[in-house]
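tokens incoming
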């Protein structure tokens, strides 16, 4: 992986429906070259997948991200993704684990089965992205759910295939797909193992501050980074790249020196897993509910 690969990932996160040609124009590559680079990242198992993650509020649920105190083995992480209602789990090279949970409870704690697998919780936060409000401004429509399901299965699926599987016109599919992204009903999540990068170092940095303007400034101005998430309005999460561990350390040092920053944490992901089957099942339940209401 190199700087251009990271630029491609950044563009895919911002505009996952852009053509390979459009992505290539901004970094001086042909569309075929962009496609080849994405395939190479997948073949090297650096980028294991590019996924659409629906917002918890689509299902009337509350998102919580739990960080665990004890080192975790990959077998335990693999088992944790089977625990309902876990939707995403990661472990770093130092074996520290985190799990994203979409709970039916307004003030959720970690599921007991998850704690039995991964141990006691060190801390918990509420992710604010992709949807910053606790409730949607309006119900998700049947068309949005059908398009969302197709995107969860394959984020880059062609419009024609979504049209054929949903019965919606390509024009409606395109507008619905864009609306889902623009309104924060889904988040684009590159699932990658930063420990597998060979030419550059890809890492995640968590920057904490009680001042949202500080976080906004860092999000806009930190070079070699792309925005991932924000927690409780007190921390911003960025994916970054560097050419050496010295540069990683320099980035950490710079961030710690920023006025208003209270803490900085650097992480290297060794494994990340998305519970795609669970998300699809929840979407199917929502669709059945709306179809039943329509028939009634």
């Amino acid at each position: 992986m190199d700087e251009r690969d990271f630029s491609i990932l950044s563009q895919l996160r911002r505009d996952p429906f852009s053509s390979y040609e459009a992505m290539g124009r901004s970094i001086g590559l042909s569309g075929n070259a962009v496609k080849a680079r994405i395939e190479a990242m997948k073949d090297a198992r650096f980028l294991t997948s590019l996924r659409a993650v629906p917002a918890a509020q689509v299902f009337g649920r509350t998102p919580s991200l739990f960080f665990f105190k004890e080192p975790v083995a990959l077998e335990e992480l693999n088992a944790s993704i089977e625990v309902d209602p876990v939707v995403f789990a990661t472990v770093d090279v130092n074996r520290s684990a985190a799990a994203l949970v979409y709970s039916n409870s307004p003030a959720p704690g970690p599921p007991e089965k998850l704690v039995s697998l991964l141990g006691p919780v060190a801390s918990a936060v509420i992710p604010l992205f992709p949807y910053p409000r606790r409730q949607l401004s309006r119900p998700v429509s049947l068309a949005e759910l059908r398009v969302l399901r197709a995107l969860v299965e394959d984020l880059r699926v062609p419009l024609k295939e979504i049209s054929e599987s949903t019965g919606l016109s390509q024009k409606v599919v395109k507008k619905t797909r864009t609306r889902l992204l623009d309104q924060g009903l889904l988040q684009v999540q590159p699932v990658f193992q930063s420990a597998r990068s060979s030419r550059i170092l890809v890492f995640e940095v968590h920057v904490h501050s009680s001042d949202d303007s500080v976080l906004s400034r860092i999000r806009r101005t930190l070079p070699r980074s792309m925005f991932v998430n924000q927690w409780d309005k007190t921390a911003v999460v960025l994916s970054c790249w560097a050419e050496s561990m010295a540069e990683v350390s320099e980035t950490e040092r710079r961030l710690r020196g920023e006025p208003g920053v209270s803490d900085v944490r650097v992480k290297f992901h060794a494994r990340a897993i998305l519970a795609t089957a669970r998300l699809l099942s929840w979407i199917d339940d929502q669709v059945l509910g709306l179809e039943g209401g329509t028939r009634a």
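note: The chain has a mean pLDDT of 89.
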